[in-house]
Q: What sequence folds into this?
């Protein structure tokens, strides 16, 4: 115990640049290990999506379209990023995503200091918050496996940073416009950040919302900052989307966007809805598809609106609002994989200094509970994947358990989030 405390104190004494260097070394080590592992193991370390995007980059170099690669359903930008995988070395994309990891850590550090000030204790809190991302084994492994979620998270955090930074400068329209550009670009990359739009919009409304009429007024009659945000978002999204539409045509729109609304993904995953989709995977079940889509999206949309109105009224609480929204989006999604956890793990460190009402033992309990929820699911998933056992019902049950655990955790975090220093009216139900 004493050794652990001594190590913790030594960790705090390190400067933030030192943590960045250590984090970079750890990721380089994992990338090198991946090369050895993939060469000797039948179960690859590298994510299959990384190989798909690399194949898409190869098609681009050959003068074709990345969508010629079966299952390529991303923005063409991802394939362009990984062109050096073909021209230089196969790990180049992993280096880019690991660099994004470090940049996210830098933004977390800057944002915590920006909100709290320059005191020495605040610097320590900022370092601890950033380290929760930089030394998170899950995020480090996911980026070094070749997942591009850290690239997406970089622009989500950038948007939050620009919006929070402009809170004391009402005339700083350029920062808000740049936040809109980042938001539009990240929606182009992935669809899920579109659910943050209402929160971003409301945080620029000018203060707490007292009733439903005032809420409608602030949405219908935008101020100058809100107009700048909307314009930036539209430009950031349409410029890239229209450009690639002109290059790749309808196939780009279908594979990158529309496919995600109609797809049937019946492979085992953490989602509560996995078993329902698996049992409903037949031509005879087509009539119930719309009902299932509504059943999945309905609770998500209701919670997104409620959380946005409750926690996005001030820019100080915007990070927690975005975290809770991302948590809900992942938990209630029709498909949930480990990569999706990065969507909210990137924002969680921004909120850590506000959980002062929660004891350390309580935090540890919630973390262990979250890990156990995954571990319980991984056992039947392993038996299905590698032992070919028929464990679909077991996986469905564990998906439900994990869903309940996640909802309990979010409830605890909302309950213990310290709002006393902020003028929030979430106690006044609309």
A:
């Amino acid at each position: 115990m004493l050794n652990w405390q001594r190590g913790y104190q030594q960790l705090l004494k390190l400067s933030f640049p030192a943590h960045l260097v250590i984090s970079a070394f750890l990721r380089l080590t994992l990338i090198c290990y991946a090369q050895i592992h993939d060469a000797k193991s039948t179960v690859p370390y590298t994510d299959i999506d990384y190989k798909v995007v690399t194949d898409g980059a190869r098609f681009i170099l050959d003068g074709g379209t990345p969508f010629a690669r079966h299952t390529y359903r991303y923005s063409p930008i991802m394939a362009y990023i990984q062109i050096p995988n073909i021209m230089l070395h196969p790990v180049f994309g992993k280096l880019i995503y690991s660099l994004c990891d470090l940049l996210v850590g830098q933004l977390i550090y800057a944002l915590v200091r920006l909100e709290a000030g320059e005191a020495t204790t605040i610097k320590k809190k900022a370092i601890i918050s950033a380290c929760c991302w930089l030394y998170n084994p899950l995020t480090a492994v996911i980026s070094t496996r070749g997942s591009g979620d850290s690239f997406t998270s970089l622009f989500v955090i950038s948007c939050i940073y620009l919006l929070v930074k402009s809170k004391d400068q009402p005339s700083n329209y350029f920062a808000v416009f740049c936040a809109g550009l980042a938001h539009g670009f990240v929606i182009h990359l992935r669809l899920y950040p579109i659910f943050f739009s209402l929160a971003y919009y409301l945080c620029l409304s000018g203060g707490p919302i007292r009733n439903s009429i005032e809420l409608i007024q602030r949405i219908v009659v935008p101020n100058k900052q809100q107009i700048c945000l909307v314009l930036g978002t539209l430009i950031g999204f349409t410029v890239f989307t229209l450009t690639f539409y002109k290059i790749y045509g309808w196939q780009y729109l279908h594979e990158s966007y529309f496919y995600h609304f109609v797809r049937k993904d019946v492979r085992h995953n953490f989602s509560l809805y996995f078993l329902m989709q698996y049992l409903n995977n037949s031509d005879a079940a087509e009539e119930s598809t719309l009902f299932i889509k509504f059943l999945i999206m309905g609770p998500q949309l209701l919670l997104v609106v409620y959380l946005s109105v409750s926690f996005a009224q001030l820019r100080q609480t915007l990070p927690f609002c975005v975290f809770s929204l991302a948590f809900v989006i992942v938990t209630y999604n029709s498909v949930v994989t480990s990569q999706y956890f990065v969507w909210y793990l990137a924002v969680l460190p921004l909120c850590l200094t506000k959980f002062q009402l929660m004891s350390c033992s309580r935090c540890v309990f919630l973390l262990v509970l979250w890990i156990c929820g995954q571990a319980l699911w991984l056992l039947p998933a392993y038996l299905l994947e590698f032992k070919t056992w028929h464990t679909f019902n077991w996986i469905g049950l564990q998906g439900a358990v994990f869903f309940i655990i996640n909802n309990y955790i979010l409830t605890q975090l909302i309950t213990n989030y310290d709002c006393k220093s902020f003028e929030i009216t979430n106690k006044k139900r609309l």
